[in-house]
Amino acid sequence: MNKIGDIGTKYLSDVLQTNQTITELNLGQNKISDIGIQYLADALKNNKVLTIVELYYNQIGNSGAQYLYDAFKENKTLIKLNLKGNPGSYCTIVTAASEIRNDKAITKMDLCGKSIDDIGTKFLADALVNNETITELDLSVNKIGDIGTKHLSDALQTNQTITELNLGQNKISDIGIQYLVDMLRNNTTITSIDLSGNQIGDIGAKYLADALENNKTLIILSLKSHQIADTGAQQLAVALEKNKYIKSNQTSNLFRLQMALSLNSIGFSCIIFLVLLQVANGLLCYNCTDCSSVSSSTATTNSTDSGAACY
């Protein structure tokens, strides 16, 4: 560990503006703050030879991470940008964006509980557009709202690699669901979406129902712990009843739609939901455990465990 700090970073950045030989730079544990990072980011926009920059365990906040991300977008030579161990929540996201863009061995990206908000989601979305290796993306337990969901949905219109998407326990409302639904109409690779613990009501359920009516890809959909009531549940059920692909694949064990609706505000319509799903002749798994006004013995019909979809 050294004590280069912000002033030292400025001197070094001035050199990097014209340097054509240094390819790797390690400035980890040097007490560099956002001020010093701004100097470095300006240098990185012009430097065409650096491939690795280590900035772990400094004092970089969200502003510094933003400076570096802007430089990273312009600099196509940089392969690795490591901001781990810094106080800014965006630092984790910028590091992940670097990995997504350049590390072709990564197939799963776990960013659960990283305080990712809508701006951080934009960083990730930009990197995901051209990624062809990541198949599983876990963004659960974050602060992603409707705007962040739009950024992600726009990226997934193009990305055809991700098959599993976890957005559980974020701040997504019916508006964000509409963005996801628009994406699902064009995306043919996503088979599993976890939306549990967000802020989805009957309007969002209606948007999802419209998408499910013609869906040929989705296998697992978790809508646990929302404000979905009778109207929303019935719309979902009717959509599945109309799904011609499900009907045409009744004899295939390869197609099983698994849906979790437990911990919602569904009353008697949960029973209607179960009845309508019989059109799939057992190929649909569902769960309405702990829905309002429905006993668990009734709600868990054809479910393998209490409180969870039959995965």
TrEMBL record:
It holds the Pfam family LRR_6. Keywords: Membrane, Transmembrane, Transmembrane helix. The keyword Membrane applies. The chain crosses the membrane at residues 261-284. InterPro entries: Leu-rich_rpt, LRR-containing, LRR_dom_sf. This is Uncharacterized protein. It comes from Adineta steineri.
